[in-house]
Amino acid sequence: MTRRAVSILMLSCLWAACSTAPAVQCHAATRAELSDLDALMSLLATRRHGRVEFVEQQFLAILKRPIESSGELRYDAPDRLEKHTLMPRVETMVLSGGVLTVERGGNVRIVDLHRYPQILPFIESIRATLAGDRGALERVFDVQFAGTLERWSLALLPLDPQLSRTVKQVRIDGSKDQLLRVEIRQADGDRSLMTLRTPAAP
Amino acid sequence: MNRSRMRIAALWLCCLAVASIIVARAHYVTDLSAFLPATPTPTQQLLVDQLRDGPASRLILVAIERGDAQARAQASAATANRLRRDPQFSSINNGEPVTAELDRAFLYQHRYLLSDAVNPAHFSPTGLRAAIEGTLDDLASPAGLLLKSMLPSDPTGEMLHIIDQLQRMPSPAMKDGIWVSRNGERALLVAQTAAGGSDTDAQERAIEAIRTAFAAAVQSSAASGAKALQLRLSGPGVFAVDARAKIERAAVRLSIAGSLLVVTLLFTVYRSLPALALGIAPVASGAAVGIAAVALGFGVVHGVTLGFGITLIGESVDYSIYFFVSAHGGGRSGVAAADWRRTWWPTLRLGMLTSVFGFASLLPSGFPGLAQLGLYSISGLVAAALVTRYVLPALLPSGFTIHDVTPLGMYVAKWLQPVRRLPGLTITILGLALAGASVALLHHHGATLWNRELAALSPVAVADQDYDASLRLDLGAADVRELVIISGPTLESVLIDAERSSKSLGTLVDDKVIGGFDSPANYLPSMATQAQRRNSLPEASRLRDNLSQATAELSLGADKLEPFLNDVEAARNGPIITEKDLQGTSLRTGFDSLILRHGDGWNALLPLHAASSTQGVDSARVRAALQETQPVQAQVLDLKREADTMYEGYLDEAIHLSLAGILAIVVLLLVTLRSPLRVVKILAPLLLAVLTVAAGLASIGVQLNILHLVGMLLIVAVGSNYALFFDRQSNLHDAGGEALTLASLIIANAGTVIAFGLLSFSKVPVLVALGSTVAPGAFLALLFAALLSRADPSPSQNLRA
């Protein structure tokens, strides 16, 4: 159960990452990558709000077909994330102050992230990413950049063996200042894939 | 003569010794039962049980303030962690998830007996399909991913359903994993004591344990802001402990201060140590006999009764003053004692009887505090009067005199003269005008004149009450004002009725009439319900068939659900859960706090939570909803309103009894004096004093409560002596004696005003009420009695002679 919670929380955290739009050109060269990462971080730090549409697919070994859901993600600096799922059911999740509030059909459920102390540093790292705090990020993940500005990829590998028993890798693909895909690969082979796009201007 | 004196002294000492033994061995109680009815109605009994030991009475609200948010969160967690291991507490909740693995294992293992979704249709092909589809939808949400590992064994999502069932309560705000106030500036924790709220000693120990745990948490905290943290506690138990300490402190301090002042006053007047020592004898005897009488009459003595013991000093100390001053204060001695017995004892006896008649009206009160006060005063006054009459003369050394106080009387008489010389008609008109103005003012205050809330008697300062309210507002969920109480002969019967009621209450939650409710059946369903759920589980082969039909078109294949089939089969053959199975889980606490066993039956409590923190529960709608379902033995109890209704009953009763007491006094005086005019002249100053004081209090915005009423009764009791003495004096045609009488009355009055005046400086509202009524009232009674007494046949000009 706790393992699953980790994956949920990883997801929760990543919405935040998705909702921001890094626009950094990356090169394979380590030196350049480092400075690009720094540039990305400082760019992220200036970002206060984000809003994107998502489609999420979960591939679970136990199911014959993937589960699909879609909706909208919102982010407010420094630590508030909202996930508004519209399909298959309306559901709102708010992550704020380390507490996850889930509302569906008038029922409110509160999931306290402090319940899982092993995840806390992980969340804080994502928040650190949003806040542009590279040091905090690298305390938890091995961070790898790949690709070009037109088509970049960010791979996060948990350093903590406890965490890596649940989550193998988080991979974020983007283009310029757009996040395109977030994929979470779990250790048991299940994975989830979230595709994002900026909503058309009203 | 000497031998009879010895006999009297010996008899007195014997009585005193017996009374002292009874006083020493009496059982003293300081809980709030003094304010609870002696013979309650069934609803009142429920209320009394709730106020004494109900879940609400056992809550201690804890706030951690100052410092920074992180330090507060750490301190809250560390304090809670320590307290959770303390058996004094049945639960400690600060928002941290302590529903340990044990709880989760218990819920999971018994999910098919605990889930209210379980019925035969739930396991039909369509029922299964709907449930599994719902679970798959849940899976789609990130929160639902918690379910992934449970999917093979719990595809119908019972576990999540049970957790929802248990969490149908509004929760306080959370930050850093703990409960905080809405503005985030306090960390909140709710402790529930194992002992009842009426067990003040246990509450005091629990409070101490919380303080110790907090101090330890601060000590061991590494957080920089920890040292600045502050702990604040509130709740019924905290108030009770505070109130007790405050009343004890006030009683001790005021008794000491009052005694010192009165002793100083007496010494200044008597200028004689033996007189001083003897003067205390009636008071001390009265107090001892009074307490002993209450102990014998009621079995227990309420702390409140002792606290008001000072009221007795007010009148009984007067007896010795009258005796010493009128018999020995004019520089005369010896022969005067016999004179005094003949001239003044009947008057003092009548004054004492007047008081006794007044206080006797309190005896039938259903309010044990008042009834005890009545008995205490009656027996104390009789004892004090008897000691003054028989023991003091016996103990007096021969040739005993005290300082001559005639000049004091002369001086005051001169000062009063201008008014006393006014024509009788003028005085009567002035008096009537004052009475009329007072009555008009009281009438103007009308409905708001009396405070009809039990809180009026609360020794808790208004600021503390406000703080408590703000904590409750922040906690929301933990505040319980309304309860549904279900009674029945067995645990099973009340659980069954609780389940029925839950259905109607559930619709009220949906309609937002109430915010939520708790029920013991959430923790332990009735055996009937469990058996019904167990019977609705199909046997393995049928379930397998149903499942393959249900999942034919779903993304979840039946082949993955073998664990589910096994678990259902195990539940089908497993035992029903009993109270014992809850042991060790936090469910036990929840269950225990909602189930009360009494004498020959059981009560199940279903606390209701308001839909919003600003609006109460509409109990009429709750009642209607409960009646719709089934004829269940259920009552809706609004704790505050019931308590206020009860107090209002006392207040009305006390007002009626007091009026009856005054009537009895009128009859007593008419029978004794045989002159309606004299009776009117005696009672007029007293009633005028009572009216003036009541109007004065009302005009400065004081709402009168039952203690003000007791105070008014005391004004009549004490003041009747003044009026009777003036009446007697005016019939003596003894001009020189008037100054002496006046002096004795002034000294007695000064003692009363000092003793009660001190009360009004205390921090205990009930004592303030008493003091601020009696001190000015006694003074006014003397003043009015003195002024009105001028219209007597003996011309006051004779004073100059």
Contiguous helical run count of chain B? 30
CATH superfamily label of chain A: Lipoprotein localisation LolA/LolB/LppX
Assign an overall shape of chain B: elongated
- CATH hierarchy, class of chain A: Mainly Beta
Tally of domains of chain A: 1
CATH topology label of chain A: outer membrane lipoprotein receptor (LolB), chain A
Describe the structure.
Chain A has a single domain (2-196), classed as Lipoprotein localisation LolA/LolB/LppX (outer membrane lipoprotein receptor (LolB), chain A, Clam). Helices cover 28% and strands 43% of the residues of chain A. Chain A contains five helices and eleven strands, in the order H-H-E-E-E-E-E-E-H-H-E-E-H-E-E-E. In chain A, strands 6-5-4-3-2-1-11-10-9-8-7 form an eleven-stranded antiparallel β-sheet. The longest helix of chain A has 18 residues, at 2-19. Residues 1-32 of chain A have low confidence and may be disordered. Chain B has 801 residues and is of the alpha+beta class. In chain B, helix 26 (639-673) runs antiparallel to helix 27. Chain B is elongated. The chains are: A alpha+beta (202), B alpha+beta (801). The interface between A and B is medium-sized, with 39 and 30 residues.
In short:
Chain A has 202 residues and is an alpha+beta fold. Chain A contains five helices and eleven strands, in the order ααββββββααββαβββ.
